[in-house]
Amino acid sequence: MNKKFKFVLDRTTNVQHGNKTFYKHLYNTSxxxxxxxxxxxxxxxxxxxxxxxxxxxxxxxSNTNREDVKKxxxxxxxxxxxxxxxxENRIDQILExxxxxNLQKDLYIIEYANLLDQIIELxxxxxxxxxxxxxxxxxxxxxxxxxxxxxxxxxxxxxxxTRAELNHLHRYCIQSKYKFEHTSDPLFPSxxxxxxCHLSARELEESGVLPSVQKIVNNLNQTLYLYDFYxxxxxxxSYVNRHIDAAxxxxxxxxxxxxxxxxxxxxxxxxxxxxxxTVHKVVDFIPGRIVVFDxxxxxxxxxxxxxxxxxxxxxxxxxFNDPENVDKMDRSxxxxxxxx
Length: 340
Hints:
The chain is about 35% helix and about 15% strand. The protein is α+β, with helices and mostly antiparallel strands. The protein folds into two domains: about 5-140, Hypothetical protein af1432; about 155-335, q2cbj1_9rhob like domain (Jelly Rolls, Sandwich), CATH 2.60.120. Strands 3, 4, 5, 6, 9, 11 and 12 form a seven-stranded antiparallel beta sheet that branches. Strands 8-7-10 form a three-stranded antiparallel beta sheet, with no helix packed on it. Strands 1-2 form a two-stranded antiparallel ribbon. A hairpin with a 2-residue loop joins strand 1 (about 15) and strand 2. Helix 2 (about 20-35) crosses helix 7 (about 100-115), helix 3 crosses helix 5 (about 75-85) and helix 4 (about 65-75) packs across helix 5 (about 75-85).
């Protein structure tokens, strides 16, 4: 293990921080900073060590010597860590915007990453503080911390599910209990003949798809917050009308094709509409394929043909990568998948 990480791990073992270990929080904060500022090593290191001395809000006595820390991460990073750790009423002091130009910027960045890692746990006041820091980074430093990097984009993966995982998922879909309640066109439900099984967070884990979602998160290099998950069951000749999955930006739809066998003559393709165009994309229904796209993109499922010899199953996951959307959702059923 890299000595920077080992030094922190040795001093934080068995220490809890919110709903995760203290080490995990420090590690995550550093990774968030790295995503935005990959060339600012002192900031990345300061994120990893930002609370190694404890803080005004998190009392932690690691008996850590400053000189030892300087030898590992350097003077600039350590001095930033020490300053951050010793700020009394840190929230008020940072918002006063009273520090040197570069120091103030660094404090905003560390605090943004620190809060982003805890976004699901923040109360209303802390959430407003988080949004204010994001706003100030842009207004004072022209730093855009937006996470809506995938607007209008479509990703198709054929290598994330193993054969064993797909077999398990297909069996899980067949054994699930469905209701005829999911329709993209409530005025004409006969045009949207599908059955749905809504899943809890525990049931989503039982389906075995989370390791594949983790791989996708790693590919996107972006934390995702999963907030709605369900299995769609399409009988023969059924399809879904043209629709979008979310009205606000920063949301992603993940659709997993769950059948372990499918012939192309059976239909059931996913049609993706190109805005202001008469030419659109059609994604073939291939077993184990995972499609990820901006939830504001219009799409629909094409009908199963008379040749289809099996019903069509998909597992849909609604997620977002903009932490400001956390406040719009029920946090109790949310699953946070961090980039590793």
